[in-house]
Structure formats: C-alpha cells, structure tokens
Amino acid sequence: MLIKHRNSQRRIYLDNAVYFITFKTYGNFPYFKLPIFCDLFVEELMLCKTIKQFELYAYNVLYDHVHLLLKPRRKYNISKIIKSLKENASRDINYVITGRYNVGDTSTCRLHVRGFINECRKKFVNQYGTNQIHFPPFKWQQSFHDHVIRNEKDFANHYNYVVYNHQKHGLPENWKYTSLKP
Fold it and tell me: Which segments constitute the Transposase IS200-like domain (predicted)?
C-alpha cells in the first residue's frame, strides 16, 4: 500500500519495504565526536528497535549525522520510528549536557537507559564540568532523508555505504559506532 507523508510529496510508505535513512544534527554540530553521545545514541537505537519492532540491517553514527538501513513493521512507519528515536536521543543527550530535562518535555527517560544516562552524565561532568559553554543544546535538523530499497543490488550498495561510511569521513577502520564493529 502506498501512502504519502502528509508534509511531503516525496515521503512514501510501502509495506515490507527496506529504507535507507539519513538524519543530521542541527547546524552539523559534531556532537558524536564524543563517545559518550555515540554510546547513548546506540543504546537509544537498540531500545527503539525493540519498542518499535523494526528490523535493523545496518547503522553508522558519524560526527554530525546518522545512517540507518531498516525495515518497519506494520504498526510503526519510518516517520514514527525516526520521530521516536530523534526525540528520545535529543532529550537524553540534553540531560547529559545540562543535568536536567527541558521544560515541556512530554517524554521521560525510558526504562533501563536511566542508569546508563546517569553514568554518561557523570563521565561528561568529570570531563567537561557543569558550566556548559562548549556544547549548544542538542538538536536534530528537521525531518530526514529516506530512500526505498528497490532490489538486492540496491540493498547491497546501501548496506556497504552505511557500514563503511566512517572510512569516507576519515574515521578509524575499527570505528565502534557502526553495525559492522568487530
């Protein structure tokens, strides 16, 4: 079934489709240079995968953007999945930076991640202190780019692009924040 996204003529939802997805940090700020934020994002990604029940074929977290290769299940489309992932990651990264949740946050820290987030906060404060002038509030650019995978060759091309993309950006071959990690 083909359904167009309400805010875009280009977004389509197809049953059983695999999607290549990219989204970026606001202003291309390199938050993910910090392993603390990468670890937190990957934890949120795995939790979102469990809650939203999608198949995750590949991911790569780079300094200012993220690539995913995934297949939604019927209950949650790609927009709902990415909204949840971005919203929860933003909230929790901002907590690590500031030590508090933003006024008006409608979601709260989820399940077992709370202890993990508190550990991230401690590490962050030990390294950068509590008076944060180095990091603007974490924010994603609006929306995301998606591409529907058309066939096996397209899948293979995008899979390789995702898992090896850190090399294109000059990051180490043994980059920890890819699904290809050792």
Answer: 14-165
Q: Pick the closest to residue 162 from 36, 31, 22 (CA basis).
A: 22
Q: Which two tokens stand for residue 95?
A: 């907590």
Neighbours of 166 (CB within 10 A): 23
Q: What is the pLDDT of residues 113-157, one digit of tens each?
A: 668 888 888 999 988 888 777 788 999 999 999 999 999 999 999
According to the 3-state scheme, what is the secondary structure of the chain? CCEECCCCCCCEECCCCCEEEEEEEHHHCCHHHCHHHHHHHHHHHHHHHHHHCCEEEEEEECCCEEEEEEECCCCCCHHHHHHHHHHHHHHHHHHHHHCCCCCCCCCCCCCCHHHHHHHHHHHHHHHHCCCCCCCCCCCECCCCEEEECCCHHHHHHHHHHHHHHHHHCCCCCCCCCECCCC
Please tell me the pTM assigned to this model.
0.87
Nearest to 57 by CA among 166, 170, 154: 154
- The contacts of residue 33 (CB under 8 Å, 6+ apart) are 63
Domains (range + CATH), the chain: 14-168 (3.30.70.1290)
Q: How far is CA 34 from the centre of its chain?
A: 15
Phi (first) and psi of residue 30, to 5 degrees? -85, 60
